[in-house]
Write a structure and sequence with these properties.
Structural class: mainly alpha
Radius of gyration: 17 Å
Strand content: 5-15%
CATH class: Mainly Alpha
Helix content: 40-55%
Distance between the termini: 52 Å
Length: 137
């Protein structure tokens, strides 16, 4: 019985991070499709149905890392989405911070190794955006 319990616990522990990552990506994709796809396209390639009506063309979100020297700009992306960064050339993009509010805040790791507190929904969205980055050649 004790061996069986240990096997079950080991399976849960080993499967936990992968399952949590999959859930985070799926939640992030759902948030992206709801809030972002109209402008950035369902595949984050700037071909959403609203894109042609905007004063400033939405950027391709699959090349954020590429345009940032190969490193995903976590802090900048978070601050642009939630409104902490005032962006004059932001164009028509609304501030989504209030729409992504959750009771729980989480710490996300920045490329510098420091952490930044964001809402759980924003963390999911950032995880999704990191996951759709094009491979650098």
């Amino acid at each position: 019985m004790l061996v069986r319990l240990r096997l079950i616990l080991a399976t849960i522990i080993l499967a936990g991070p992968a399952s949590a990552q999959n859930i985070e990506m799926q939640n992030g994709e759902n948030l992206f499709l709801y809030f972002c796809a109209e402008c950035h396209g369902r595949d984050a390639e700037s071909i959403g149905p609203m894109a042609e009506m905007l004063a400033v063309e939405p950027p391709r979100l699959t090349t954020l890392s590429e345009r940032n020297g190969g490193e995903f700009p976590t802090e900048t992306v978070a601050m642009q989405i939630d409104g902490r960064m005032n962006i004059g050339s932001h164009g028509d993009m609304p501030v989504f911070g209030p729409y992504l509010e959750t009771i729980q805040s989480v710490a996300i790791k920045l490329p510098s190794g420091q952490t930044m507190m964001v809402t759980q929904n924003l963390a999911h969205l950032i995880a999704y955006l990191k996951g759709v980055q094009n491979e650098l050649k």
